[in-house]
Design brief:
The chain is of the alpha+beta class and 337 residues long. It has helices at 42-50, 92-102, 107-120, 136-149, 166-183, 194-200, 218-223, 228-233, 309-315; strands spanning 4-13, 16-26, 31-35, 57-62, 65-66, 77-80, 154-158, 186-191, 203-208, 211-216, 238-241, 258-261, 266-269, 277-286, 290-297, 302-308, 322-327, 331-332. It has 2 domains: 4-230, P-loop containing nucleotide triphosphate hydrolases (Rossmann fold, 3-Layer(aba) Sandwich), CATH 3.40.50.300; 238-332, OB fold (Dihydrolipoamide Acetyltransferase, E2P) (Beta Barrel), CATH 2.40.50.140. The structure holds adenosine-5'-triphosphate (ATP).
């Protein structure tokens, strides 16, 4: 089995600490997202795992074997980048077969395998086309098939869908999920898109400033964020002073000056209730099945709430209307700067 063990890995560029003492245990066969803002060190960490970058300190083991000082080739890594580097002068079939032919695999085996991979990435019938005759999403699926052809121990993907439009991205997410279920290769992908990470990954590693902020399942990360950074990065949030009128019922530690409240956790009522705070509706924005309600509290503090279409109709909310709001739940962190 091919789990990955990362111990205290660090990498500096000049005086800039891109990866700062990161330790991670990645289970064999899992699908992991490295999620973080631009420049947080995600790609550098991925390149360290691949062996494309050398760590200043720390250790990386793949399948129990220390590979820290091993070459890229000996690590059994398949790498897919944002820009599909397919060979333009080769057909899709030839592109997928490339690595197998390099390994001098028997012709019949190559043929069978290429057909199976075309089917796996749902491109049957397109094997004789050239890359320029495919859409961006299809090309990226070819890149995946080509990488999987040589049966890597580990699949690394760096913003694999980054260059594609939202609809194609969504389709490719489903493809990758399906592919992973079929092939079950340990997979790590880099993304700055929290929705992509939530939808695809078994576990998410949230990275900020070269450090791991939290590792958890999508639900753990969303419902139980470990730090203010994770709370703000993974999903929308209102950041309010702990003294706000909306928190009359909650008691926060004196050290927590800021409280984080998800828009979904703001309850809107048309009549005052115990512990509800008066607010005025500034704007109502239709987002599809969900509706964003922008409100301001008496002290001028702005609060965003997300409610369902049904609730909007039931409450018959209108801009400038006076309503009452209260939190379902809110989170304060002990040492907010
Ligand atoms: N070869 C390099 N030389 C100098 N600085 C580098 C090098 N590679 C990365 N960096 C710097 O290290 C930091 C982390 O880069 P990295 O590419 O790992 O971030 P990232 O989280 O993947 O961001 P993005 O989503 O923008 O790709 C950045 O500030 C980047 O400029």
């Amino acid at each position: 089995m091919t789990g990955i063990s990362i111990e205290n890995i660090s990498r500096k560029f000049g005086s800039f600490q891109a990866v700062d003492k990161i330790s991670l245990e990645i289970e064999s066969g899992s699908l992991i997202a490295l999620l973080g803002p631009s420049g947080s060190g995600k790609s550098t960490l991925l390149r360290l795992i691949a062996g494309l970058e050398t760590p200043d300190s720390g250790r990386i083991a793949i399948a129990g074997r220390d590979v820290t000082h091993r070459s890229v080739r000996s690590r059994g890594i398949g790498f897919v980048f944002q820009h599909y580097a397919l060979f333009k002068h080769m057909t899709i079939r030839q592109n997928i077969a490339f690595g197998l032919e390099l390994q001098k695999a028997p012709k019949a085996k190559v043929r069978t395998k290429v057909e199976a991979l075309l089917e796996l990435v749902q491109l049957q019938g397109l094997g004789d086309r050239y890359p320029s005759q495919l859409s961006g999403g299809q090309r990226q699926r070819v890149a995946l098939a080509r990488t999987l052809a040589v049966e890597p121990q580990v699949l690394l993907l760096d913003e694999p869908f980054g260059a594609l439009d939202a609809k194609v991205r969504k389709e490719l997410r489903a493809s990758l999920r399906h592919l992973h279920q079929q092939v079950n290769v340990t997979t790590i992908f880099v993304t700055h898109d929290q929705e992509e990470a939530m939808e695809l990954a078994d576990r998410i590693v949230v990275i900020n400033k070269g450090k791991v902020e939290q590792v958890g399942t999508p639900a753990e990360i969303y419902d139980n964020p470990a730090t203010p950074f994770v709370m703000s990065f993974v999903g929308p949030v209102n950041v309010l002073p702990s003294t706000s009128g909306i928190f009359q019922r909650q008691s926060f530690k004196p050290s927590s000056s800021q409280v984080f409240l998800r828009p979904h956790d703001v309850l809107i009522q048309t009549k005052p209730e115990e512990a509800s705070a008066p607010a005025k509706i500034n704007r109502i924005v239709h987002l599809g099945w969900e509706v964003e309600v922008e409100l301001s509290l008496k002290d001028g503090q702005e609060v965003t709430a997300y409610i369902t279409r049904e609730d909007l109709d039931r409450l018959q909310l209108q801009p400038t209307q006076k309503v009452y709001i209260k939190p379902r739940k809110a989170k304060a962190f002990a040492s907010v700067a």
